[in-house]
Predict the structure.
Amino acid sequence: MRTKQFVLFAILVIASLLLAACGASGGPSAADLAATQQSLQATQQALNAQPAAATNTVEQPTAAAATEEPTAEQAVSEGEAYYTEEFDTAPATWTYFLLNGDDLDLDLYSESGKMVFDISGENVWSYYTYDSFLYTDVRLDARAENLGNNNNNISLICRANERGWYEFNVANNGLYTILRYESSSNEFTELYSGGVANLRTGKDTNDYTIMCRGDRLTLGVNGTEIRTVEDNQFDEGQVGISVSSFDGIPVLVEFDYATISAP
């Protein structure tokens, strides 16, 4: 797009110089004006005909859209499955559990409009799920800031039920994994792993997106689609957010919001 704008600007400058030159010599003729106008129109049509570059993007929820969503209390009382949780207080409709580690090593609380995961122990895998609805096809967006140790996972999950869930992990070093967890065996199966080129590593803020639609499971980071995989083991369940520590502590992560919507 920048190239098109630059070319058009250059043509307009040249056209202006030609018209100025004609004016200095007694004014442009009708033929001169007609030829210049035709040239500009032809150039604009050629620029418009060029195909736009293809990009794999994930549209981020806008502030206006978020304000139109019902609050957590309205979501429960009115039966709304889609809303934005801004964590102004600890929501009664969300609950936490640990898959690994000690409860004493996790402090989970709301502060200054953010949900804080404060982990003081190694290998603590903490989850926070929205319990009011079970979703088949769903999208979850969340914004999280890492304030502690740089070696930890920030994760989003979907279709969590008694049999397991799908988990999308993004580590602060830029690596990601898409996993299927099965409760019966208490094991994770890796569906895909790789690197996130556009992740703001270290102590910084990132936007995370997952979409679970049919057999397709998609991870997005900072508005860019990272990977889509296919799996058909789970078709319904809860959504949630997660923070996990490894061998480096403390881990301190703040979630600014979580938006649940249709994919």
Q: What stands out?
A: DSSP finds four helices and 15 strands in the chain. The CA atoms of residues 60 and 212 lie 16 Å apart.
